[in-house]
Amino acid sequence: MAEEPDGTIVLSVVIPMYNEEEVLPALVSRVRPVLADLGVPYELVAVDDGSTDRTAELLAAFRLGWPELRVVALRRNSGHQAALTAGLDRAVGAYVLTLDADLQDPPEKIPEMLALARTEGLDIVYGVRADRSSDTGFKRWTATAYYRLVRRLAGSQVPAQAGDFRLLSRAAVDALKALPDQQRVYRLLVPWLGFPSGQVTYERAPRPAGTTKYPLGRMIRLAVDSITGFSAAPLRLATWLGVGAFLICAGLLVYTLVAYALGRTVPGWTSLFTGVLFIGAVQLVCVGLLGEYVARIYTAVQNRPTYFVRHDSATPGTVPRPAPEAPAPAPEPAPEPDEAPLPRPRPRG
């Protein structure tokens, strides 16, 4: 691979943060030496996603002695995927790596991922969790179910157990920035690109401090966005539910006619009540699925920004370096006389 021009940032590391004051010192103590040992110009883009604790204060303190640390502060909490979008939009490196702040994905894998991308000419390198024994049983079960579902709906190109720990080339980042999606799920959007990719496996570690920022409600929302954003299968499911309800109703109609012909009809409300509940439930499910897709269309038509930047601490482009000394001023040339001097007269006799 050709060498980058002098001063150009080779690697941008994007880390979204929301109320991470407890884990931030441990994050800096592990990430900074790893990046310093790479031997290439880099920047760390910390995206403060509207934190309400001391995250912003700690980032400002760390930046005093770490010029490569760049803080992008959002005006309000916009969500994890929106914070990732803000970091990707502003990162300037030839490669961009995204990493969560909880240290469950090891930053020590960054050199291996960068080396794999540069030697193999890859646009994407996924960090794949080969061991999730540190997670709870419920977390492992829901994660397995999620990846099985999205791989079945969105395609087998989605790597199993790959979260938001990945390395992207500049070409992949520019392709993502050009997409019009409003509600982005990068763990599905990046594989959709189909760019050359590789994998690096690791053991998922427990969070050293703080609490998870992905409770059950956000996990469900992520699953819904993943399904409705990358597959029309739920709409087809609504169609098949309607067909199934029609067949059941047709069978009940035949049963009713036969019973009437045999004189076995008994007035009652149980069958009628059950049939009404069934048809009503199917209709509500179908209307709900249609509503999810209409909501996505409505959001896309509005085309509102997914985040607002309050402050960016650095000027993107090159590695900070001291300003060169000003050259000494050149001596001014002597002024030329207006006219030549007159010749001196010769003395007489």
Automatic annotation (TrEMBL):
Residue span(s) of domain Glycosyltransferase 2-like: 12-175
Q: What is its main location?
A: membrane
Q: Where in the cell is it found?
A: Membrane
One term of GO molecular function: transferase activity
Task: Provide the transmembrane region boundaries.
Answer: 237-262, 268-290
InterPro entries per record: Glyco_trans_2-like, Glycosyltransferase_2, Nucleotide-diphossugar_trans
How is this protein positioned relative to the membrane? Multi-pass membrane protein
Q: Any keyword Transmembrane helix? A: yes
Where is the stretch described as Disordered?
A: 312-349
- Pro residues bias located where? 319-349
Keyword entries, A-Z: Glycosyltransferase, Membrane, Transferase, Transmembrane, Transmembrane helix
Record's family? Answer: Belongs to the glycosyltransferase 2 family.
For this entry, the protein name equals: Glucosyl transferase
